Write the structure tokens for this entry.
Amino acid sequence: MVSKKIVIVGHFGVGKTSLIRRFVEDIFSEDYKVTIGVHILKKTVEINDKEINLILWDTEGTDDIEEIRKAYLLGTHGFIFVCDLSRPITYKNIESQIDYLKTNFNNVPILSIGNKSDLLPKGSISGKKEEMSFLDMLVSAKEGNNVQRLFEKMAKMLF
Amino acid sequence: MSMDQLKRDYKSKDLQFVSIDGSGNVLTTDQQLFPLTKGTSIKDFHPFFESIEIYFEDHDKHFKLECVHINERIFDIDFLINTDNTAVVIFREGTDFYNRVQVIAQKRNESIISQESLELKNLILKEQEEFKNVFIRNFSHELRNPLTLVSSFSSMLLKTELNLDQQMLVEAVKDQSDKLRDILNDIIDLSILKTNSLSLESAPFALDKLLKRIHLNYTTAIASKEIKISLEVGSTVPKNLIGDKRRFEQIITNFLDNALRHGKGEKLQIIIKENQRRANKTSLRIQVNTNKGIIPDLSNVSSLEEYASLDKGDLEKTTGLSFSIARELAQLMDGKIAIKQNEDGGTSQIADIKLTFPLHHTEIEEKPEDKTVNKIKFSEKVRTIIAENNSVTQMTALKVLVGSGNFDTQVFTDPKQLLHAVENEEHDLILMSSSLSHMDAIELMSLIKEFANDHNKKIPIIAVSTKTLPEELTAYRKAGFKDVVKKPYTDDELLNTIYKRLNIKKFK
């Protein structure tokens, strides 16, 4: 079976760990626990009748993507850049961060997403989507909205 | 146990050495940290090893991966690639150390996120406050045009022959429109004060004369009511002060208006006394007492806040506006205000403020107030241009000017026609609204200066505007406007300003 390494990056507290736990174990905890180093989880998905192992690297949050230990990123097949829709500082420099990944990782697929869409006022999501057009998707690890779709989209991009 | 054996044991206590081939099969291993079986694939041990091939493919031969979480424990892992396409994987346990690091990182991140959240909330509150102030300002500007008509026409009507009933009705209309105008001005003042865009003037003024005038004005204004107003000024209070006379007066008059609006007593006291002084600085207390009633429950601070706040948007509470303004003004004068219930059942409104005073006493003359010049009759009519789009204020200005019998008026709503007129005809006066067909008055003024013939270049141009912020008034004067009539105006206010700016002798 094919395995693909996907690294989840972004500012601290944006919900990278929650996103992976929602996808892999379908659970969510309100408690915030800081990730240090890296956690690696695995989930098998089926794309076009073929099974694929997604090896998900949950990295510790950083203000700047260049602070991530280089050895973690070796052999990455896809990046998911996560920001927190309720904290502008987490997407302030998104363009330069994405450019850095594109330049240094041979144009591997990148999805940039805004987490915590559940915090947006009801009925404002479509408006926020237009405002945050630099993001590929708005998700909510808490409510599970779009989480499955996100990882399936990434898996499809890897084929 | 030998010392060498002990050293070896302690050195290797937190370490495990595993050798693997290029496919990840375990060739040799100790069992120091976790059990691994020779011949099995290390990829099955943990997903971390699933992409182990990449380390064999890279040109580097030594990789260090710190702080990797494997099965609830944390390791630093070294990959050393050998030339025979095998590798040594060294695990160093760091669970205790990294757990301590985690606690520190947790505190740090939580604190930063909490700080970010506070800053964001603060920003949102500021934006809301700004929106509210802009909304209030625009809203009150919109009301100024219709109110100008009501104020002026009711004032004009009162000067005509009316029967008793009619007179009472028109007086009521005039009275209410005056009140509405005061509220509008208060709203504007408050929105300026809330945005910290008000700066105080600093000029010498005669305090004793000012207080006497305020006392006289209020005594005259409430002559029909059975209320007595007394004025007490402490013997040490300086006769002259240096500061913003208009704003100083506003604190006192706001207290008085507040007391008259809510008070149920028959006595009103204005007390001015000196708290203390140092060099040329004095701390003054302004106190307005009523002997009965006023101000809602003041037993706690929150009700005072509520009373003095517009935040709830409840128009019933606009009675608190004047008090709010007084509070903001007192703060600008490095002071504060308070409301206290007195033993006699009345209330005291108190402002403690700081001002400077001239060390050497000199007489300061008060400028006499503009007197109504309604009865002035010219032998020659003033050829006047009214540049105004709004039909309501157009009609108001027309009626006021024509009603006085001293003006020949021409109304323009198109800037092109206005410029043509100032170029080719002779006029004596231009009244210009803040904009004409979307062209700003200041912009239009520069075109008039350019196009006007020699005669018209010298005539007074007066702005008639809803824009009444201090910086807006300054901009008008800088642009060359002789004066600004603030909307809403009364007939007397418009005529007084015009007569002040005209060379009256020429038309008599």
